[in-house]
Amino acid sequence: MLGVTCGASPLPFNVLPLMIGPIHADLGWSFALISAGVTVLGVIGALMAPLFGAAADHIGVRRVALWSLAAFGIGFGAFYFLPANPAGYIACWAALGLIAIGSSPVTWSRAISMWFDRRRGLALAIMLMGTSLSALIVPQIAQRAIEAGGWRAGFPALAVLPLLVALPVALLWFREPRPEERPPGVTDASGALWGLTLGQAVRSYRFWVLITSILLIAFAYGGAHIHMVQIVAMHGVTPKVAAGVMGLVAIGILSGRLIVGFLFDRLWAPGVAFPALLLPAFACLLLMGTGTSLTWLMLAGYLLGVAAGTEADVIAFLAAKYFGMAHFGRIYGMLYMPFGVGSAISPILYGAVRDATGRYDAMLMAAMLLFATGGALLLTLGRYPRSAEQGVS
Q1: What are the beta bridge partners of residue 193?
Q2: What predicted TM-score, i.e. pTM, was given to this entire model?
Q3: Cα 27 to the chain's mean position, in Å?
Q4: Is the pLDDT of residue 355 over 60?
Q5: What is the pLDDT of residue 390?
Q6: In sequence order, which residues have a C-beta less than 8 Å from that of residue 117 and are 6 or more positions away?
Q7: Measured between alpha carbons, how far is 152 from 77 in angstroms, rounded to an integer?
Q8: Torsions phi, psi of 324, nearest 5?
Q9: Where are the domains of the chain?
């Protein structure tokens, strides 16, 4: 959980919403250009995810995750020296993407799925609570750092989290289970890990249903999160109150994740995910226009958080359930690609709509449809396989 909190998946996405305005005021760049930083990070990280996942399968999660966590902390702190030109700005985010994805749920999820079977949904939810903690903590630290030393000061202030919090704890206590510690549902009758190869998974219709669903939902949510402060500010609230709405997003991620994870262990997961992903479609409706009351804006932030919590749980849980653990890292890495790419491109789309129209309404309307369609696709996945042979079919 601490590794996820302080890793490359939530931390940059929770600090940039507070920096978009100050960077725009300082350097005069467009909202789309500023958003492109996390786009480049996300796309390159997504492309690297299968490689980091394969490395976790081959040499273990501990080595991959801890080295990547350290590299991410050092690299992110060095962003204090970001050059004041667009090419250098983008290049720095690209470099971070090459080294940081190993500190994301791509690696940590494999370890959790190896330790748990019957309560895997809840265990993954607790691990992924790290994104909620990040959403609660990071904006507060970033806001104080920006007030004290400008937007550049936010980067080293937050680099403390991976380097001095998560890394020491993981070095002391984090490991994968030994073969005799693995729960029965993770292994076959011989005690070996069961599961499809990446090639077998790719030939399954379920793989492509998941790819499509994940991509649609990521397109809908990623930009809404990055631009949330700006979207809320258009309804006449102060930047400080808008930052508070980000806290409601975090609470939505937290509560939605725990509820969804609990239900995943007891009910058919796609049937749980579909109604949960309809809630953020309603949130987009609330965020459109101007003059919406603060109460409704807070509800919208909460419901969008539920979407983020649901999607992250869906990827890890369904990858383990439908494809097994033998090659989980490779398969999860491939499924993480549309999540990373969609979440990364989405902020540019939101920013471009804002630059072109002065509002976000057109993109929010599209997001409503994307949430509903992405959730409905999950209903086609069918029952869980109970063995490698069933998984192949």
Answers
A1: 187
A2: 0.77
A3: 28
A4: yes
A5: 45
A6: 183, 184, 185, 186
A7: 10
A8: 80, 180
A9: 1-176, 194-379
Neighbours of 10 (CB within 10 A): 27
Listing DSSP states for 191-244 in one string gives SSBPB--HHHHHTSHHHHHHHHHHHHHHHHHHHHHHTHHHHHHTTT--HHHHHH
Going from the C-alpha of 217 to that of each of 109, 138, 228, 374, 375, the distances in angstroms are: 20, 24, 16, 6, 8
- Euclidean distance between CA atoms 40 and 42, whole angstroms: 5
Q: Exposed, middle or buried, 135 (CB in 10 Å: 0-12/13-18/19+)?
A: buried
Whole-number Å distance between alpha carbons of 68 and 357: 40
Q: Which two tokens mark 364?
A: 């929010």
Topology of domain 194-379 in CATH is Growth Hormone; Chain: A; (1.20.1250)
Mean pLDDT of the chain: 87
Note the pLDDT of residue 388. Answer: 40
Q: Which two tokens stand for residue 260?
A: 């969804």
For the 1-176 domain, the top CATH level (class) is mainly alpha
- 335-345 per-position pLDDT tens digit: 988 888 888 78
358: left (phi over 0), alpha (psi -120 to 50) or beta: left
pLDDT (tens digit per residue) in 29-81: 888 788 788 888 888 988 898 999 899 988 989 999 999 999 999 999 999 99
Question: Do the domains 194-379 and 1-176 match in fold?
Answer: yes
Would residue 216 be called left, alpha or beta, if left means φ above 0 and alpha means ψ between -120 and 50 degrees?
alpha
Distance separating alpha carbons of residues 158 and 164, to the nearest angstrom: 10
Residues in the chain: 393
